[in-house]
């Protein structure tokens, strides 16, 4: 980071902090600072350490935004540090009004106790703030968990509702062992009075802080003060170095300015810092109960707290986002959007007017009639006679059913017996036809284009008579419309030739949406006529289209004019037919559609 810093303006941390603090002069900057966050309530300046907030800032100073709840839940530590600074800017402005005659030691205690009050006021206004403040607590709490720091900075946060109760239950025995039960009880009464103070009660706050200093001996049984986040703590000098003033730290240890927010010498062994929680006069760590996890386990407690709050943030994020779509649903949504966009582009009004037609020949009229009759037979299902049991007199009765019916009546039970049988005719609903045709119109496909036009014309007639939709496109460098959705062509469309073999994936997408191939009912078939010599870079996109269609039970027929061994692209899970001649193309298409209709009629 160096000495460079960036201000988070606009709809970012600054705007959000201003709303929380109710002040327009609040600014949030990303800059290296001790303790994770540093705030000056008088000026409203809030500095956040990017390393503590687990942020990655690029050369332009771009960082994650805190505009929405989802943004904040995605970066809960950053949100917690912003709220920590904003709450102090809102409720700790008394610090700028304090007289210079107030001892530094008393001022430091007042600042440490007032953070719990500021957090409590924020949680009352916005209960969700508790999660973010708790997420940032492992950053803002001193790294060295001495009994004095635990008493001043941690236990008040439990009563303020920021930290969970289990943290207080694990810490309080250590503090009581260091200072005595009576002293801790009196300190508890002091910080609970602080929690109820108004923002303007700075005199009462300072009086309570002075009382606190008289309760706590000048020699800290568990070590000196640690780094905090407040005015006067970023210079690296000890706060309250005058030995004659109450509550001063006699050790005179300088406040650590390293980014880890700890105290002690820079670069010190973390294990030594952890051990300092129980270290002191008489080696207090020997007297600590190992089951509390305090002493050498202060870092374990912070890790447990971080894990718990991280799980809560993930749960809140999941609830805020709602049920997440499966990978298959995301893929389906993406393909559906692609198909809709392609259909709008290919089948626009101007493109449909550019389709050329010619009168059909007598042979083509006969071929169309044969295709329609073939599909009608496949769609038809003769009515069936089914036998069903009924509870009222109809036809021949079963003796066992009559006996069961009489017994149920005699016992006052609900009559469920069905003694009689009847026969009725069952007529199946005829499935509609949804068919799409994609034709490769590259130079090598010239011989098949007239036959393709005939098949497209016949399918339009069949879709009109059987109910359903049909659409057709051609690809040959560009994608062209050959049959518009729900169009009933009176004449045969002329399939124009193309230059190259690109555009197959887009043509398939346009037909998918144009012919409603992914609808839930009916016979759904996509026929692709090609020589198979397609660009290899389109193979992946073509395969994705085919998988999308197959997930919707659409039959895909891959009709090759040559040998399948020579085809460069053959998608998986398709019905591959090779050596298709122009005369056999119409029969191939009608057979594939008839098979789908028969399956739909008998499903």
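Sequence proposed for the structure above (603 residues):
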């Amino acid at each position: 980071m160096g000495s460079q810093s960036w201000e988070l303006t606009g709809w970012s941390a600054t705007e959000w902090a201003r709303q929380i603090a109710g002040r327009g002069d609040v600014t949030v900057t990303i800059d290296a600072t001790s303790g994770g966050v540093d705030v000056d309530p008088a000026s409203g300046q809030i500095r956040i350490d990017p390393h503590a907030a687990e942020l990655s800032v690029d050369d332009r100073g771009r960082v994650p935004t805190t505009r929405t709840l989802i943004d904040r839940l995605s970066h809960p530590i950053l949100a917690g540090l912003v709220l920590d600074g904003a709450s102090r800017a809102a409720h700790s402005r008394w610090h700028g009004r304090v007289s210079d005659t107030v001892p530094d030691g008393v001022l430091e205690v007042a600042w440490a106790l007032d953070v719990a009050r500021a957090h409590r006021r924020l949680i009352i206004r916005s209960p969700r703030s508790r999660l973010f403040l708790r997420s940032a607590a492992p950053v803002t709490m001193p790294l060295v968990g001495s009994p004095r720091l635990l008493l001043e900075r941690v236990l008040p946060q439990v009563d303020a509702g920021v930290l969970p109760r289990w943290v207080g239950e694990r810490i309080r025995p250590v503090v009581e062992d260091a200072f005595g039960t009576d002293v801790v009880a009196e300190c508890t009464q002091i910080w609970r009075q602080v929690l109820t103070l108004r923002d303007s009660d700075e005199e009462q706050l300072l009086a309570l802080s002075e009382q606190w200093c008289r309760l706590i001996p000048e020699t800290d049984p568990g070590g000196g003060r640690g780094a905090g986040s407040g005015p006067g703590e970023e210079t690296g000098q000890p706060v309250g170095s005058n030995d004659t003033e109450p509550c001063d730290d006699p050790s005179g240890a300088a406040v650590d300015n390293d980014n880890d927010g700890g105290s002690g010498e820079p670069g010190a062994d973390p294990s030594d810092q952890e051990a300092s929680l129980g270290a002191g006069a008489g080696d207090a760590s020997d007297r600590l109960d190992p089951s509390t996890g305090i002493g050498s386990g202060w870092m374990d407690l912070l890790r447990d707290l971080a894990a718990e709050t991280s799980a809560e943030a993930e749960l809140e994020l999941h609830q805020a986002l709602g049920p997440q779509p499966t990978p298959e649903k995301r893929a389906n949504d993406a393909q559906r959007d692609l198909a809709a966009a392609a259909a709008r582009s290919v089948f626009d009004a101007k493109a449909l007017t550019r389709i050329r037609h010619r009168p059909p020949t007598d042979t083509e009229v006969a071929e169309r009639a044969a295709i329609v009759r073939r599909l009608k037979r496949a769609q038809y299902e003769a009515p069936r006679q089914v036998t069903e049991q009924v509870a009222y007199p109809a036809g021949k009765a079963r003796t066992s059913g009559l006996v069961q019916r009489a017994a149920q009546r005699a016992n006052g039970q609900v009559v469920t017996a069905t003694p009689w049988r009847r026969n009725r005719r069952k007529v199946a609903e005829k499935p509609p036809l949804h068919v799409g045709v994609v034709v490769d119109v590259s130079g090598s496909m010239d011989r098949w284009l007239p036959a393709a036009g005939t098949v497209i014309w016949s399918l339009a007639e069949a879709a009109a008579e059987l109910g359903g939709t049909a659409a057709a496109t051609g690809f040959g460098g560009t994608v062209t419309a050959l049959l518009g959705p729900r169009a009933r062509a009176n004449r045969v469309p002329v399939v124009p030739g193309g230059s190259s073999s690109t555009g197959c994936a887009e043509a398939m997408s346009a037909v998918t949406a144009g012919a409603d191939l992914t609808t839930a009912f009916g016979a759904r078939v996509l026929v692709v006529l090609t020589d198979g010599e397609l660009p290899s870079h389109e193979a992946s996109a073509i395969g994705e289209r085919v998988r999308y269609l197959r997930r919707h039970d659409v039959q895909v027929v891959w009709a090759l004019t040559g040998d399948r061994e020579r085809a460069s692209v053959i998608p998986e899970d398709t019905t591959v037919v090779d050596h298709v001649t122009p005369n056999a193309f119409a029969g191939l298409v009608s057979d594939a559609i008839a098979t789908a209709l028969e399956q739909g009629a008998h499903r």
